Amino acid sequence: MNEAAGVTTATSQGEESALDLQQLKTFLEVCQTRHFGHAASNLYLTQSAVSFRIRQLENQLGTTLFVRHRNNLQLTAAGERLQHHAESILSLWEQARQDVASQQDRAATLTLATTPAISTAWLGPALLDMHQTLADRFWRSETLTPDQISRRLLDRSLDLAVLPVSLKVDELTSRLLTPLTLTLTSANGVRTEDAVQRSYVQIDWAAGLPIHPGADLNSMPSLQTSDFQLAINWLQRYSGAAMLPENLVDQTQWQLRADLATTSLPLYLIHHSQHPDLANMNPVIDYLLQR
Q1: Which end of the chain is more exposed for a tag (fewer CB within 10 A), N or C?
Q2: How many angstroms separate the CA atoms of 32 and 220, rounded?
Q3: CA 98, CA 103: separation in Å to the nearest integer?
Q4: What structural domains does the chain harbor?
Q5: Are 212 and 219 in contact (CB under 8 A)?
Q6: Please, what is the Cα angle at 30 between 25 and 33, to 5 degrees?
Q7: pLDDT digits 0-9 by tens, 124-144
Q8: How far apart are CA 237 and CA 223, in angstroms?
Q9: pLDDT digit string, tens, across residues 24-59
Q10: Average pLDDT in the 219-225 region?
Q11: Which among 227, 219, 228, 229 is positioned nearest to 199, based on CA atoms?
Q12: SS3 sequence, 23-78?
């Protein structure tokens, strides 16, 4: 019997093998990137190490988890089933880790999550400012999909989330924050109408929630991404245009055209209605609601 730390599983030969949590983390990263090389970069591993962990996992489960489809990796039916289990296992492990920590540590640490674009555009700046007021706390910030956020809130391994959609779940409370104003913006002094035609960047603020500049501009995105920093770099290199938050735009370097296109993106602060540390979270909730 393998004594390595992990989750013990039974093989088809009846022997027990240890399922390393790092294998599951690697598997989920490959699920997200659909590329061994990108997953390796995000995990600070070599590509061969990522491939080895996936092979180990497949050997332990006795099934194939990924298949190559053209230039992309696709999950098999078994891989799709494992993805949900892996997320639950890692979430429960984090919940258990927090549960056995000292009460003082639990009270001091708060975990928040949002989508990648909103992390840069709203939650990141909010955390920087909030720590000046609530400096006695420790923060953990994560970027997740709305589905992952919903599951983590429900199992209470996540304290607070900010999303552009309200989660319609009985156990969760959603409160409306100050909306994020997005304005059609161009870079490098290029006329905005020309920049849209030259290189329009569509930022996905959440899965299934793209923000368009308007049908009358007839723009076809040259890049669609949830990575806010990549969008900014793309605009600056290719003199393009995108719908950007007014609060992050330096108007001396960017041209804002609210007369062409502007929209208000709703933001919701979401938490579990029966969170055990709700009293400890209230100062944070109040701060974010007033921001």
Answers
A1: N
A2: 25
A3: 9
A4: 7-98 (1.10.10.10), 101-178+267-290 (3.40.190.10), 180-265 (3.40.190)
A5: yes
A6: 125
A7: 999 999 999 988 888 989 988
A8: 13
A9: 999 999 998 888 988 888 888 899 999 999 999 999
A10: 83
A11: 219
A12: HHHHHHHHHHHCCHHHHHHHHCCCHHHHHHHHHHHHHHHCCCCEEEECCEEEECHH
Question: Which bin fits 158, alpha (ψ -120 to 50), beta or left (φ > 0)?
Answer: beta
Contact indicator for 163, 206 with CB cutoff of 8 Å: yes
For residues 97 and 212, what is the distance between their CA atoms, to the nearest angstrom?
42
Facing residues of 187 across strands? 254
Name the one residue in this structure whose structure tokens are 């494992």: 82
CA 177 – CA 136 distance, rounded (Å) = 24
Q: Is 136 helix (H, G, I), strand (E, B) or coil?
A: coil
Burial of 187 (0-12, 13-18, 19+ CB in 10 A): buried
H helix intervals, the chain: 21-33, 36-43, 47-61, 77-100, 103-108, 116-118, 124-133, 146-154, 192-198, 228-238, 278-290
pTM over 0.90: no
Alpha carbon of 233 to those of 156, 165, 238: distances in Å? 36, 27, 9
